[in-house]
Write a structure and sequence with these properties.
Chains A, B: This is Heat-inducible transcription repressor HrcA. The structure is a homodimer of 338-residue chains. In chain A, a hairpin with an 8-residue loop joins strand 1 and strand 2. In chain A, helix 1 packs across helix 4 and helix 2 crosses helix 3. Chain A has 338 residues and is an alpha+beta fold. Chain A is elongated, with a radius of gyration of 26 Å. The first copy, chain A, has three domains: 75 residues, Winged helix-like DNA-binding domain superfamily/Winged helix DNA-binding domain (Arc Repressor Mutant, subunit A), CATH 1.10.10.10; 151 residues, Beta-Lactamase (2-Layer Sandwich), CATH 3.30.450.40; 96 residues, Enolase-like, N-terminal domain (Enolase-like, domain 1, 2-Layer Sandwich). The longest helix of chain A has 21 residues. Chain A is 47% helix and 17% strand. The interface between A and B is medium-sized, with 34 and 32 residues. The first copy, chain A, binds a DNA duplex (30 and 30 nucleotides) through helix 2 and helix 3.
Chain lengths: 338, 338
DNA sequence: GGCTGGCACTCGTATGCGGTGAGTGCCAGG
DNA sequence: CCTGGCACTCACCGCATACGAGTGCCAGCC
């Protein structure tokens, strides 16, 4: 077990390194933080911290930098989430209040997060699986062609074109629309399959094929589109990484382009609260030198999607976590209102 | 006027420089292209080309690289758009055919373009202004709350929530829906304002306010959403720029984040065919060392939106132009089918 | 007049070499 | 257990040198 002072030394190292981006030495530490001991003592502490794997030296005669393990300890034990200032909170609220629809909410959230944290922001669209159906609309586009429009309680809209096996009259369509909505409106997506199972039985034989087609398309849409969309922004902030980094930035950009990777990344974070994944804790190789701070957000009590930021492991964890948490909270409010 | 051989020298310089990313000297030129003359002669030609501003030397004792003006001449006079190979065409078709809806079409197009050109791809969503209305749907969400859903001929869907001044019955809603659609379905967006102008007159006095509100929201949607969306991809390709300049990449990333900038960029290209903007021809400062190749695409004869790629001025113009043109053509086909 | 070979010149890059200093580990003493 | 002192390491900086690709120019040739 590390003594209290050694933990303080670790905290100081993390803070200084995050600030200066340069390895921090024992002398500088004692000067900038009043630890009440001499550099020599700090050196001993540092040697101990290095033995335990919390810090490392890039070169023999350089200062120390925190390792992933060091950041982990810092985040778990030493850091307190830094709440935003009042003006910041107001700015967030004002900015998000201006959104006109779901796309806009997500887009604004991304910009906001990227600006607040000066890092790459990732915002997942509210998931379909956990949403409820607000309305299903069927539109006749041609005699044997129907457009299915699905509207969720979070304001998301999905549409799908359907080729019917047989022509389908306007009255039948209206009938189907009415019956469908009376069954599924307000229900959770996961319940829909059960609810519509016996629907074709109420129709004429000639229409039954089409009804079946429409239903299966609806179910497909519910399931397939579970594959969730997301939006990212602030990639320009990657250039702040370090002066060395054309090599570091590339795999990160590549990873960010793969929505699948990002979705998995957000999905892995099971913690109901905020999750911080540091460096090699991220499964994806390209993100081994980055940390991901993510948190769920949602209109009600339950989280419907996640958002977060991706930045260098050497990031301002307290500030970032504060910003992420605050933004998630406000986005939840906005969604609840609409 | 430049002699034929000098033009050939310029062409050779562009080709070599694009290939090697290094300034090209007179000796190397004569070795790799059989110009039929000696290095000394080429040197004279190069001096002339430099006087005219087509090429420049980064340092006194280095080879030459093309200037923006040089690339311009190359693109206008010396390059032929390189058609794609048959397998490439098949791959495009197959990949795009798999798309399930408009979002998917755009997403796949971006990926495709980025992969084919190994550069940053930008695809604009089919514009609202030039589209026609396929259907307007009105859904009652609450007694005095209506959702407006607008579907375009390109499959794009826009929705908008409306708070009505007074409760609005289902029958009135159905009535409005029917009258609205009979007037605007199949018409161009630009014509809609005229077409609905006198619509409120046919309604009861108590409903007229609501009808008016719905109509003005519709018109707003038509106008405001003219502000068009777009999707970008392949930003990781920016890292191929050169090993030298992480400084160049930053402003480009920043510019790419600003949708407004990109939209203006695509919008400026008035040429009905393909447009190439080279280096400083781009108004935006951050893109002064990049070239933009863009072209319109559309389902019918008319272009409904644009797509293109952004890359270093030192790009493979014939190949890029070929890829952009081919992709635009196929996307147009896909849109026409759906 | 235009092309060619030769030649001197420029200048950016690579290489080698001390000097400097931040930072360390260790040790003896308080 | 902390502290001051001390020798040691090694990345970084500046500088001086060598190298060589590439140029411009000129005299000669077709």
């Amino acid at each position: 077990m590390l003594s209290e002072r050694r933990l303080q030394v670790l905290r100081a190292i993390v803070q200084d390194y995050v600030g200066t981006e340069e390895p921090v030495g024992s002398k500088a530490l004692t000067e900038r933080h009043n630890l009440g001991v001499s550099p020599a003592t700090v050196r001993n502490d540092m040697a101990a911290l290095e033995d335990e794997g919390y810090i490392a030296q890039p070169h023999t005669s350089a200062g120390r930098i925190p390792t992933d393990k060091g950041y982990r300890l810092f985040v778990d034990k030493l850091a307190e989430v830094k709440p935003l200032t009042a003006p910041e909170r107001r700015a967030i609220q004002n900015f998000l209040d201006g959104a006109v629809d779901l796309d806009d909410v997500v887009a604004r959230t991304v910009r906001l997060l990227a600006q607040l944290t000066r890092q790459v922001a990732v915002v997942q669209y509210p998931s379909l699986t956990r949403s409820t159906v607000r309305h299903v609309e069927l539109l006749s586009m041609a005699p044997a062609r129907v457009m299915l429009v699905l509207i969720t309680d979070t304001g998301r809209v999905e549409q799908r074109m359907i080729d019917c096996p047989a022509p389908f009259g306007e009255t039948s369509l209206a009938d189907l629309r009415a019956r469908l909505n009376s069954r599924v409106a307000g229900r959770r997506f996961t319940d829909v399959p059960q609810l519509v199972q016996d629907l074709p039985e109420g129709f004429e034989a000639e229409d039954r094929g089409t009804v079946q087609t429409v239903l299966s398309t609806l179910l497909e849409t519910l399931v397939e589109r579970t594959e969730e969309r997301l939006m990212i922004g602030g990639t320009a902030n990657l250039t702040r990484f370090g002066h060395d980094f054309p090599l570091t930035i590339r795999p990160v950009l590549e990873a960010l382009e793969e929505q699948v990777v990002l979705l998995k990344l957000l999905g892995e974070a099971k913690d109901p609260g905020m999750t911080v994944r540091i460096g090699h804790e991220n499964a994806h190789e390209g993100l081994n030198s980055t940390s991901v701070v993510s948190v769920g957000y949602g209109s009600g009590g339950e989280a419907v999607a996640k958002l977060g930021v991706v930045g260098p492991t050497r990031m301002d964890y307290p500030g970032t976590m504060g910003a992420v948490r605050a933004v998630a909270r406000y986005v939840g409010q906005i969604l609840a209102e609409s």
